[in-house]
Amino acid sequence: MKTRFGGAIVYVPDAVATAAFYERAFGIERKFVSDGNDYCELQGDLPLGFVQEDFAQKSLPEFARNRPRAPAAGFEIALVSEDVDAAYKRAVAAGAAPVLEPQNKPWGQRVSYVRDLNGVLVEICSPWSTS
């Protein structure tokens, strides 16, 4: 049996507030909100979900919490846009913390970085291909 990537879940203080932020900052709509508001999932080719930290803590050992003033965790959420500059400006206007303004990379991709309301690093980039 082959294993494949199925999506990502980020533990956050407030799943609903985080999903609302992603709607405002990045234009990604909510797909699902659990009855208890402990889990929200965004629209997309692969699921991006947000789980309340206190809910996750019931099942998991201790984990590092994402916070705006703490160093960013060792991962990023990559969001693809045809207009990186406009997407970056929208995110910052919605309250994302700027990290790196859009710039062209040697491999031909345009890339920028912000941090979301919880301090999670978000890359806003042009489409890329490894083929």
Automatic annotation (TrEMBL):
InterPro entries: Glyas_Bleomycin-R_OHBP_Dase, Glyas_Fos-R_dOase_dom, VOC_core. Residues 4-127 form the VOC domain. Gene3D superfamilies: 2,3-Dihydroxybiphenyl 1,2-Dioxygenase, domain 1 (3.10.180.10). It holds the Pfam family Glyoxalase. This is Glyoxalase.
